[in-house]
Design goal:
heterodimer, A: mainly beta, 5-stranded parallel beta barrel, B: alpha/beta, Pectate Lyase C-like, 8-stranded parallel sheet, 21 strands, about 15% helix, glycosidase (chain B), signal (chain B), hydrolase (chain B), Pectin_lyase_fold/virulence (chain B), Pectin_lyas_fold (chain B)
């Protein structure tokens, strides 16, 4: 009897101790919270040690933990308690710059990892980029300096490649020198309740989901200098599949939610539900497939955008497609409300979006395929887009005659962006090279008179715009729909 | 040691080949919109002019600055997306012969500003600062002369401003006084933030050519003083489609 109880309690203690054993305080490994000690080696030792012991959690309590690149290992959770800040070193040589996609937190082929807690990861990206820039000018590091800024070796805050069972929860990620966080060819990822605040340097995408499978981005706030929420496809044999983006708020001096730009493989079964976008210089939602990627089965439901440069831009291009034909089909966009800004919506941002493609009046939403590759089956349901209107033909002019519409360049190999055609012939919606376009309860409103009509369809087969209502200032009699080379 | 010598040699060669083209970042200019780049830009222009001339390239980004002076044979190339952003602080502007300007030149020849970039004033911030200083009695009420032009060029020849977008000037967006062979082309001027803003001010200029200008200004699109010889004006319009 007593031996039995003894054995039971022994087992109980074993269990307890194994639970506790998996939690390690940072100080245990000599990691200093003083903000000045470079902790790279100690943190790496801790991660390796915990992983070798079968896994566990490395806990950081309040303080500033200066570090260079940390490589994640299987079954290790980094837990940043409230007040703990993982501070990226400003020395470019403290990062794994010999690896493509160097990052403050780096993982490749790792299973079961997590970053959790209410703490902060601060990449100090601007300072890192400036140090890198100096090294380039000194001739120590070779770099072509695209647009007078470093092309390579700018550290991301988080880069995970071919990782699985990943959870990122609660943390705030700030100030990367490049894309903030990239998940490339990863599977089974949940990112929940994070905050991204990064306007530190060029190309600060908030999050890049690249060729991932079973990915959830939930309940997060993303404020970034470049595209806020971005799906990409770098590998022609891979694609993004089963991705859900839900209950997020995004602010960006580029696009709010974007597919692309690099779209080699494509995207399938992507659900974007109940998100808000504001102060975006470019489009609230855009899909661009210029590199041969196949895009299909996309649902956007309940997307609200305020003070944005453009509501919607869907585009097939032929840029780096190597003979493969990109495709874009079966897109449902419903319950979407957008207010387009009259002035620059991202004014005051660090790294504001570039003033470009001028002269141009306010650009319409666009769906633009290619001559031999139409965008297929797009349904717009319960939509209201509000534009400022006021397009002035003396500033920029594009008419609606056959010649004028035909003169709009295809720009198949150009970088796809809502403004790329400069002036377009509609103030609300321009659709070219498409098949199966349905407008159900779609409202387009221009606050002031515009010289252009609301909608231009050019080379569209199978369209139904009977559900469209248009309002333009006090203008009641104007012909608002122009159709060329198109069939219902 | 040998490696360093080679490296040095390489840079000498590279420097020779590219002698005429300079990136703004080489002089420490920052495109972050918050760093005041005045000294770096002025040093770059003086340096390039001292080397016999060349082009200073600004790529996409916002380059905050106060007054700087153009020098002979120096071209400022503003690539698409580059913004020269005028400081909102009146003390960042130098007093040039009684007038102030963001970009100034006097007695120079062969000077150019070109590209699809932007030169942008920050009128509401600037005027708010001025009102603050006036209310404290630091600046007198009749302080119109303190308002800087975005561009002011005096007594210079072979002056070209091509393709630039000029946004939100104060009294004068650009002023040219006593210039010869002045060419303004492909500009978009939008200046409505200040009560009465002149798009182009000309005084005693000769051999002036105006091509493809769109001038949307709260004041006069073109104001002339004294005798100017405008040799050519083509395709220049205001928002209502009228000639300048």
């Amino acid at each position: 009897m007593s031996t039995k109880r003894y054995i039971l309690s022994f087992i109980f203690f074993l269990l307890i101790s194994s639970v506790f054993a998996t939690e390690y305080n940072a100080s245990f490994f000599g990691i200093k919270s003083n903000g000045t000690t470079l902790n790279t080696s100690s943190i790496q030792k801790a991660v390796n040690f915990i992983s070798e012991r079968g896994g566990g959690t490395l806990k950081f309590y309040v303080g500033r933990y200066l570090t260079g690149t940390i490589v994640l290992k299987p079954n290790v959770t980094i837990h940043l308690e409230e007040g703990a800040v993982l501070v990226g070193s400003t020395n470019i040589y403290d990062y794994n710059i010999d690896t493509p996609n160097c990052a403050l937190i780096y993982g490749k082929g790792v299973d079961n990892i997590a970053i959790k807690g209410k703490g902060v990861i601060d990449g100090q990206g601007r300072e890192v980029a400036y140090h890198l820039m100096d090294q380039i000018h000194n001739g120590i590091i070779a770099d072509p300096l695209d647009y007078d800024r470093p092309r390579n070796r700018r550290p991301k805050a988080i880069y995970l490649r071919e990782c699985s069972n990943v959870r990122i929860e609660g943390v705030t990620i700030r100030n990367a020198a490049d894309w903030v966080q990239t998940y490339d060819q990863c599977e089974d990822i949940v990112i929940d309740g994070i905050t991204v605040d990064s306007k530190a340097f060029w190309n600060n995408d908030g999050i890049d989901i690249v060729d991932c499978k079973n990915f959830k981005l939930l309940n997060s706030f993303i404020d970034s200098a470049d595209d806020a929420i971005c799906l990409k496809s770098h590998d022609a044999s891979k694609r993004c599949e089963n991705v859900e983006i839900r209950n997020c708020v995004a602010r960006s001096s580029a696009n709010g939610i974007k597919f692309g730009t690099v779209s080699a493989g494509g995207y399938k079964n992507i659900r974007i539900i109940n998100n808000k976008v504001y102060d975006t210089f470019r489009s609230a939602f855009t899909i661009a497939t210029p590199d041969g990627g196949i895009v299909e089965d996309i649902l956007v439901d309940s997307l609200y955008a305020y003070n944005t440069g453009n509501p919607l831009y869907l585009r097939i291009g032929a840029r780096w497609n190597n003979g493969r034909q990109g495709a874009l089909s079966n897109v449902v966009i419903q319950n979407m409300y957008v207010e387009v800004a009259a002035d620059k919506p991202d004014a005051g941002y660090s790294y504001e979006g570039p003033v470009e493609d001028n002269p141009r009046n306010i650009s319409p939403s666009s769906i633009v395929g290619l001559k031999d590759q139409p965008i297929r089956n797009v349904t717009l349901r319960n939509i209201a887009f509000v534009y400022p209107g006021g397009g002035n033909p003396n500033y920029a002019y594009r008419g609606t005659t056959e010649e004028e519409l035909a003169a709009i360049p295809e720009m198949a190999d150009a970088y796809p962006e809502f403004s790329q055609f400069k002036e377009l012939p509609a103030w609300g919606f321009y659709i070219r090279h498409a098949e199966g376009i349905t407008f159900e309860n779609v409202k387009l409103r221009a606050e002031a008179k515009d010289y252009r009509p609301a909608l231009v369809l050019d080379d569209v087969k199978g369209y139904d715009v009977s559900g469209l209502t248009v309002e333009e200032g006090k203008n009641k009699k104007k012909k608002q729909i122009f159709v060329q080379n198109s069939k219902k | 040691m040998k490696r360093i010598a080679y490296l040095g040699l390489f840079f000498l060669m590279a420097a020779n080949v590219q002698a005429a083209e300079y990136n703004a970042s080489l002089f420490g200019c920052k495109s972050d919109g918050v760093t005041n780049n005045t000294s770096s830009i002025q040093y770059a222009i003086d340096f390039i002019s001292g080397k016999g001339g060349g082009t200073l390239h600004f790529y996409v980004g916002r380059y905050l600055t106060g007054s700087f002076e153009l020098k002979s044979n120096v071209t400022i190339e503003l690539h698409e997306g580059a913004v020269i952003l005028a400081s909102p602080n009146v003390y960042d502007y130098l007093n040039y012969s009684g007038s102030r300007a963001l970009i100034y030149a006097n007695g120079q020849s062969n000077i150019k500003i070109q590209g699809k970039g932007v030169i942008q004033g920050q009128v509401p911030l600037f005027t708010a600062n001025m009102e603050n200083l006036t209310s404290k009695g630091i600046v007198r009420k009749d302080s119109q002369h303190l308002l800087p032009d975005l561009i002011r060029i005096e007594n210079s020849e072979q002056v070209t401003v091509d393709g630039i977008m000029l946004l939100n000037g104060l009294e004068n967006v650009q002023s040219y006084i006593g210039c010869r062979q002045l060419s303004l082309s492909n500009q978009i001027i939008k200046s409505n933030a200040y009560g009465s803003s002149t798009g182009i001010f000309l005084s005693a200029c000769s051999a002036v050519e105006l091509r493809s200008l769109y001038v949307d200004a709260s004041g006069k699109p073109l104001r002339e003083e004294g005798k100017n010889e405008i040799r050519l004006q083509e395709n220049c319009v205001t928002p209502n489609g009228k000639k300048l």
